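Two proteins were folded this term; both appear here.
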Amino acid sequence: MSSGARCISPRDTLQHRIGPVFPEIQGLMTHQTGSSTLTSGLDRRARLSATVTHDISRRNGLITVSIELGHEGAKMVQARLARYSMGLRELLDESPRLLRFMECHSPLAAMVIETSRSETHPEAGFDGLWSSSLTDSSLRGLPDQEIVSMYERVVFAREILAVSALPMIMDGDTGGTVEQFMDTVRRTERSGISAIVIEDKVGTKQNSLLADSSVHVLADQDDFARKIQKGVEAKAHPQFMIVARLEGLIVGLPVEEVLQRAAAFVAAGADALLVHSKARDPREVLDVGRRLRETHPDIPLIAVPTTYPSVTDEELREAGFRIVIYANHMLRASVRAMAQVSTAILTGATLEAAEPFCAPVEDLLALSVGGTSR
């Protein structure tokens, strides 16, 4: 099966791939095997009818969605739908723009992410989901030390992918042993995940953003390259991507050595490179990005600006990055909101004090699959 795509029913296609793209859809008129008709509010002056057809290939799981509208915006509509039929590789091939992936720790978070839009550019949404080992662990009250197994995390990711059509990149930590990583590649690919990221470290997992860099031990370059090579051999389809996460900047390795290790990992078959840093200033990451773009122009670069949040999308794109991951922000936001609600209730001894921090119940009903909207 192709990465980032799953064999799903036509009805699921309508609910999860088309509905989130067009919040203005008023209702589905029919549910048929080969086609469905819906009424759209795209043109507020005159309601338009659109016929959506589905071609589900059992060979590779890709779903083709086409739409015909007697409207000037038909091409734009078709392009927006197509985005929701693509895995990560297809999105990268589609255009040179920077892709934005948001941390997703639950099916509910996936629904929020998929329906979110820019206030200034309503057509701009997130391109995909990031499954973080930190947030998956924190959600269970556990430290980020690979205590939650990859098997458990893949099972949980399936629940997220059941309600979202966005491609997912999974944080694979160190990947474990070569044999464990090969099994993880097979499991993640079969689950519809688009890519797996593994970091070039060994030993007990320690979060890269810890202040003490001495707790991190880099993997032997050749050993890590062999792990990537074996992971590539375990893939069933070239669309699935294996990403090498470069931790050299985290431990203070000279840039030249970081670039040398990157070259070895690309030669071993890495499909993309993630340049990791805990610096507050983005200049070093941007410099590494530019140099990698010169030596490996066809390898997508990924940035994770958790510690340098002031960097702009344009700066990342100009430095050669193709993907930016907002690595833990959805869970961090929910932790603060829960603390505010708890404090407000205890302080005010009434639920009324907590209401300003809460979404209306109607919003939950609207997000839930099959729920009623306001």
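Next, the second protein.
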Amino acid sequence: MTTPLFQRFSTHLASYYTNTAGFVLSGTPDTSHSYDPLEDKSSWTDERDALGIIEQLVAIGAVLLGSLATYWTNAAAEKARNQDGLLTRWDDKKLSAYEGYVDCVRECIFMAVRFYEDREGIRASERTGAEMVAEMAAARRLRGQAFERIMLLGGDVVIEAAHELNAAAREVDWQADREIPGSLDDWRERNRAVFRAINEFHDSAREDLGVQGQVRGGIHPDRDLLLPPARTGGETPQGSSELAE
């Protein structure tokens, strides 16, 4: 297989011999097949310039392709870091909301217990009835605000557990306020129910935050209210509903 350069050289060589032969026979050079070395040299220079330009374009394309690949890789890594940071921030906000809601619920329960015991003559309080009512109203307002944060940030399971806890806590409030009837046994059972609901809320919150384990069941024994033992010697038995989870 012959190369284009070799073919062109052969053609010029044949033209040279033809021109030389015509000059020898006729004494006149054959200009129809003249060979101009300068013209051929200019053609070779153009080809070399074209090859140089192509090589430069290929090098530039490789640089651009490498730059784009680096940019896409860095952009994907930065996006992943931002997503991880955003999830971490949302988990922090959820944890704060869950913790704040449980604190508000427990505070309302303790205030209701103190008010119930004072009103029923079980244990007197240093505060007046009006002061305790005002404190309970403020605490219940904060509990409502904390519940709204759960509605905004909580997962589906956590929201349902918060609804159950809120309903159980309201029953404690209602009996303390005498909005619903109930005996001391009913009062204790309602307090047991609200703390069971707190434990269920804890489990739902742990699942939503990806924390392993459960508050209830497994190796955890059943918990009940911490009640003082019955007194002897003719003393009036205390019915204090001191609570525990």
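Residues 21-27, 231-245 have pLDDT under 50 and may be disordered. Residues 37-119 form the longest helix (83 residues). These notes refer to the second protein only.
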